[in-house]
Every structure is written in C-alpha cells, then in structure tokens.
C-alpha cells in the first residue's frame, strides 16, 4: 500500500476561510477579534509557533499582541499579566504558550485565565465541559485532528483509534474527543503511554493511529497495521548539518517505512501543526462573538 498524504494546508485553509467570514461579520458589528499571547522565555520552537499564530491573526484581519517575559519572571508577574488581560474588553482570547520555563507552575497560570477567553481549551472548566460532551472551547491540536480526518472523509465511527501519548495538550483530550458521541467521534479508543506494556501489540490493532509522543521515529512500520490511517502530531527538531537552520523537522513516525504500509498519513511539517493554528483562530472568533 502507498499512503495518501493528509496535508494540513487544504483542510486548514477551508477553516481559515470560514473564520475570515466570521471576522468580517464581527467587524461589521464593531468587534475586532483580538488574541493576546503570553510567551515566557526564549524557547526557539515556542517563538516560531507564536510567530505563526501572529501571522495567522494578521492574515485574517484579527488583532494580536504578544507579551514577552524573561524566563526569570516570577510567577506573580505572569499571573498579574494574565489578570490584566482577563479584564480588558478589547482582548477576546488569552493564551500562555507552553511549556513554561522550569519553576513556573503551569497549572496555576492556566487556571488564572478567564475560561471565556481560554482559546486553548486548557482551563479545567473547559476540560470538564468537553468531558461532559457540552459546548466548550476545545483544545486546538485535538480538535484540529478531528477536522483534518473529516476533511479527508475519514470517519472515526466504529473504528479502533489508538492514541500514543497522554499529554494534557494532545493525547488525553484527543482520546476523549474520538470516543465522544456524534460527529468526529464514536471511535473505540485505546490510550497508550510510556508505561504501556507491549506498545506495538496495541498500535498494531489501530485503524487510526495517532502518535503524540514527542520522540522522532517512535512509531516504526512494524507497529502499524496494513491500511491504517496514521496521524503524526510530533514536531521534533532533529540536528541536521546539511540544513541552513542546523536542524530539520521530524514527526514521531518513521515516515517512509510507515507510509509504505498505511492507507493515509499526515506529513510533518505541513500536517497537524497547520490545523492547530487554524483551530486557535476559530476559537478566538468564537470567544469574540460571545463577548
Ligand atoms: N498554550 N502551548 C499552548 N497552546 C498550544 O496550542 C501549543 N502548541 C503546542 C506547543 N505549545 C502550545 C502549539 O501551538 C504545539 N503547537 C504548534 C503550533 C504550530 C505548529 C506546530 C506546533 C506549526 O505551525 N507547525 C508547522 C511547522 C512550524 C515550524 O516550522 O517550526 C508544521 O507545518 O507542522
């Protein structure tokens, strides 16, 4: 089998076009959607993702502002910044880029964000609403994966989806969305992680295999069933002297071997990452529309 490439570009462009329409409606009503991003420290990958989010806002005619703090910023300063953004009427979405530098309590920061402005969907109120199957701001990477599958006509209903990785950002919420009732869900889900015994035994059962491990080459061809749909969430920087940046991007999936076996596979870059940004834009206009 040779896999179909599930490119993020067409799927994300369709969502961004819808979002652009909503931005126009909001502007006609006197509301200009605004995303505020908090970036603590100078992690190069985080700086690049945040730049991508700013570009997406600008392209759609939305406002954005990025608040940069040094890695040495005390927790009180981060919390104070968030508190200020919470009460600003012109700010509709607030996002604190993860990971925070060591020593800063990520949970405390996330819980300080006004749930109505929590466009990452990380606040416990939004997580709880998601778990209960209610309307909520949903986390961007997991909801982006659901949208990506739908765009390519892949319906998880009745399929066995195996998620590898249990992070709060991706694996855990994605397992929930795939198993929930109705559109984009209805899958039977297995959630694997670093303590899973015989990982390959589980991944080989997957009709839809999602790799969200953060380790290049973690999923190899022998771990994949013939004809499986493979979604690669990893964005790993691998040192590469032949690249002008000194690194290249690699997913969690050993691409060439797995692509030979799978029926469909997402590329890295150009796959899930683009969906994450598109869903963030959608959440921001949703939050602005409710303001
Ligand atoms: N708070 N922290 C918070 N919210 C998020 O939604 C994120 N995430 C993850 C890391 N921390 C976060 C992101 O924004 C991962 N992530 C993210 C966003 C965009 C891209 C990848 C990850 C992306 O655009 N990837 C491009 C390549 C980017 C590059 O060249 O480095 C791609 O095509 O995959």
Describe this structure in words.
The chain is an alpha/beta fold and 291 residues long. It contains 10 helices and 11 strands. It has a 6-stranded parallel sheet with strand order 1-11-8-7-5-6. Strands 3-2-4 form a 3-stranded parallel sheet, with helices on both faces. Helix 2 (44-59) packs across helix 10. It is globular and about 50 Å long. It starts with a strand and ends with a helix. The chain binds ligand L34. Ligand L34 is lined by residues 48-49, 52, 95-98, 120, 140-141, 169, 235, 249, 268-270, 273-274, 276-277.
Sequence of secondary-structure elements: EHEHEHEHHHEHEHEEEEHEH
Distance between the termini: 49 Å
Bound molecules: ligand L34
Shape: globular
Q: What percent of the residues sit in helical stretches (DSSP H or I)?
A: 25-40%
């Amino acid at each position: 089998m040779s896999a179909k490439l599930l490119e993020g570009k067409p799927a994300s462009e369709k969502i961004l076009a819808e979002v652009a329409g909503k931005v126009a409606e909001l502007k006609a009503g006197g509301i200009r959607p605004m995303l505020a991003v908090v970036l603590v420290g100078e992690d190069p990958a985080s700086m690049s993702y945040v730049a991508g989010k700013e570009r997406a806002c600008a392209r759609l005619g939305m406002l954005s502002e990025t608040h940069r703090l040094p890695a040495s910023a005390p927790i009180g300063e981060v919390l104070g910044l968030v508190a200020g953004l919470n009460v600003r009427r012109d700010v509709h979405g607030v996002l604190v880029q993860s990971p925070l530098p060591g020593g800063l309590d990520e949970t405390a920061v996330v819980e300080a964000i006004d749930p109505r402005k929590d466009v990452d969907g990380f606040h416990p109120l939004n997580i709880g609403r998601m778990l209960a199957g209610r309307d909520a701001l949903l986390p961007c990477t997991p909801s982006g994966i659901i949208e990506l599958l739908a765009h390519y006509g892949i319906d998880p209903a009745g399929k066995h989806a195996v998620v590898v990785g249990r992070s709060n950002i991706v694996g855990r919420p994605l397992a929930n969305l795939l198993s929930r009732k109705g559109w984009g869900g209805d899958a039977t889900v297995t959630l694997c992680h670093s303590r899973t015994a015989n990982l390959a035994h589980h991944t080989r059962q997957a009709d839809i295999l999602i790799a969200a491990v953060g380790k290049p080459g973690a999923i190899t061809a022998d771990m994949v069933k013939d004809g499986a749909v493979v979604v690669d969430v990893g964005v790993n920087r691998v040192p590469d002297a032949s690249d002008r940046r000194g690194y290249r991007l690699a997913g969690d999936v050993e691409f060439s071997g797995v692509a030979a076996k799978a029926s469909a596979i997402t590329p890295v870059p150009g796959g899930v990452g683009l969906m994450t940004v598109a869903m963030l834009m959608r959440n921001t206009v949703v939050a602005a529309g409710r303001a």
